[in-house]
Amino acid sequence: MACVSIQGGSPLNGEIHIQGSKNAALPMLAACLLAHGETKLYNCPHIRDVYNMLKILEAMGCHTQMHPDHVTVDTSPALTGEISEADASAMRSSVMLMGAALGRLHYVSIPWPGGCCIGKRPVDIHLKALEAMNVCIRSSDRGLECQTTGLRGSTVDFPYPSVGATENVILAAVLAEDTTVIRHAAKEPEIIDLCLFLNAMGADIHGMGTGCIIIHGVKRLRSIAYRVMPDRIVAGTYLAAAAATGGDVTAVDVGTRDLGPTLDVLADMGCGIVLKNRQVRVIAPPLLLPAECIHTQPFPGFPTDMQSQLMVCLTAARGTSVICEEIFEDRFKIVPWLLKMGADIGIEQNKAVIRGGTPLHGCAVEACDLRGGAALVIAGLMAEGNTLVGRPDYIERGYEDICRDLSQLGAKICKV
Ligand code: EPZ
Question: From the centroid of its chain, how far is CA 61?
């Protein structure tokens, strides 16, 4: 059984290039369905979730290819909207294919999108919006079957700024009749990148990054070449690791605005932050300050995808910190493992109280979700002695090669 083995105690120092964004690349791969011909995505990360998305696109009839510096998706062959359980079961992003498949084929059938270990992950906001766009949705024990005689623009008012639902509606709206307005849309940087990609293909989208996105339907989109934005959560993970190990790390080729919410919290914990053109440097203080109360929020709030990594950092702070997880109902799964390593953390519903200043000691732990797995690696970097992190396949869903990247910064880490 593969593990990541970490010998703790070395501060991280140096520069690290950041991979392309998982959460930008996945909706862009779905968007390829909307153009005839071959689309090229540069800086697409080599991660499990991308491989799984390419597998689903292949099952729909596309020809896909992963090159060292780009991915190609050719949608010239005859395509099917039938997505099987076998193809989609590896991850949730098959939901993201709904809008694009409806835009291209006017039909899609997907297996019930499973929840995952961070929460139930309902899709009610997606479905209500698509129904308002003239989509008829039938649910069966096999999954969801969606059909339309033609997508029609509509004004949709989201009860919550769901990232995935915002992406699905945008993908359904770009080739729809008339205009679609999304109120309370998600503002994440990955949404902006998706809209810039679609506009470069010939779409007519305005307001991305604000809470109100307007999409004027167009007749056709052309396949293009595009470069995916850097991954702000991978960058945040490595910069948090610098803070946790008393290090000094510069992430290169990153969007400094995208990292703003994470950097604000690291600065409040006493870190020095240096911003240069597309570079972010974090210099750890001799002793981290506790965080009074951090609430995870939709962008531009503190990202839920950085919550586990921050929790690990706060075990080293001198004092008590509080984290409230406002987005997912089950995202404290690393706590039992951190307690085993010597941390002092109490959970009350969605609130974690971290009493810092407790040195961690290395032991065998196990990843149970993507970001929690990355956070356990940070704990291993901080701990005295050796830590083995099991189920690295969770980490590989979103990190190209966490051992390669952290070794480059001086970590004693390898996959065994
Ligand atoms: C995206 O998930 C990301 N995934 C997640 O990243 C990220 O944590 C999340 O956005 C929040 O930023 C991708 O982009 C592939 P949501 P998504 O719809 O779209 C509720 C990672 O680690 N909700 O904004 O599923 C939902 O239950 C992953 O990279 C509904 O109630 O997130 C949750 O509580 C993890 N009904 C909240 O909204 C719906 O129809 C946020 O979900 C949809 C969502």
Answer: 26
Residue 195 CB burial class (10 angstroms; 0-12, 13-18, ≥19):
buried
Q: Which two tokens stand for residue 261?
A: 């919410």
Q: How far is the CA of 118 from the centre of ligand 1 (A)?
A: 10
**pTM for the predicted model, two decimal places:** 0.97
For the sheet containing 107-111, what is the strand order? 107-111, 143-148, 135-139
> Would residue 116 show up in a list of annotated catalytic residues for this protein?
yes
pLDDT by position in tens, the chain (length 416): 899 999 999 999 999 999 999 999 999 999 999 999 999 999 999 999 999 999 999 999 999 999 999 999 999 999 999 998 887 766 666 788 999 999 999 999 998 876 567 777 789 999 999 999 999 999 877 789 999 999 999 999 999 999 999 999 999 999 999 999 999 999 999 999 999 999 999 999 999 999 999 999 999 999 999 999 999 999 999 999 999 999 999 999 998 999 999 999 999 999 999 999 999 999 999 999 999 999 999 999 999 999 999 999 999 999 999 999 999 999 999 999 999 999 999 999 999 999 999 999 999 999 999 999 999 999 999 999 999 999 999 999 999 999 999 999 999 999 99
Per DSSP, the three-state class of 164 is helix
Ligand 1 atom with least separation from CA of 120: 27
Q: Please give the biggest Cα pair distance in the chain.
A: 63
Best residue among 144, 163, 400 to mutate for probing ligand 1, ranked by most atoms within 8 Å of CB: 163
The sign of the torsion formed by the CA atoms of 198, 202, 208, 212 equals negative
Mutate which of 28, 327, 369, 402 to test ligand 1's pocket (most atoms within 8 Å of Cβ)? 327
Q: How far, in Å, CA of 200 to CA of 32, rounded?
A: 12
Cα gap 217→204, rounded to integer Å: 7
Partnered with residue 222 across adjacent β-strands are 36
Ligand 1 pocket, residue 165 CB under 6 Å:
yes
DSSP symbol at 358:
-
CB 329 within 8 A of CB 120: yes
